[in-house]
Amino acid sequence: MNLILHLLLDAAVIFGLAYLMPQVDVKNFGTAVLIALLLGLLNFFVGWLIRFPLNLVTFFLLTGIVRIIVTAILLKLIDKVMDSFTIVGFWPALVIALAVAVAGTLIDRSAPTQEMVESGYVVTVLSHLRLT
C-alpha cells in the first residue's frame, strides 16, 4: 500500500511540476505514473551504484544531497529514454528530485507506525468500519 501511495504521489509531483515549469513536458498522468515507476526501479537497481562512490567522496556527510542529485541524474536518463517526457536542462530535474524527496519524506513521517496502531493511538479504517 505504501509503495502505491509513493508511486502516485511521485507521479502527482512530477505531473504538477510539469504543469508549472515550462522546461518540463509530460504527455499525461499515465506517463507520469510510468516515470515514477521507472524512477523507483532505477533508484533501486542502479541508484546505489552511483550513490555509493559519491557518498565515499563526501565521507557520508552529504547523503541526502547526494540522493537528490542522483535522482536528478536518473530523471535525465529517463528523459533520454522516453519520448513523452522532456526535461530541458539539469536544474529542472534537480527541482523535481527535491520535490519528490520532500513529498516522500512528508508521506513517510505522516504514516502511522505499527506501534501506534497496536497501542490504539491510531484507529485503523477497518476497526472504524466494524464499530459503525
From TrEMBL:
InterPro entries cross-referenced by the UniProt entry: Phage_holin_4_2
Ranges in coiled-coil conformation: none
Transmembrane segments: 6-22, 29-50, 56-75, 87-107
Keyword Membrane appears in the UniProt entry: yes
Pfam families with a match to the protein in the record: Phage_holin_4_2
Keyword field: Membrane, Transmembrane, Transmembrane helix
Recorded superkingdom: Bacteria
The protein, known as: Putative membrane protein
Classification lineage: Bacteria, Pseudomonadati, Bacteroidota, Cytophagia, Cytophagales
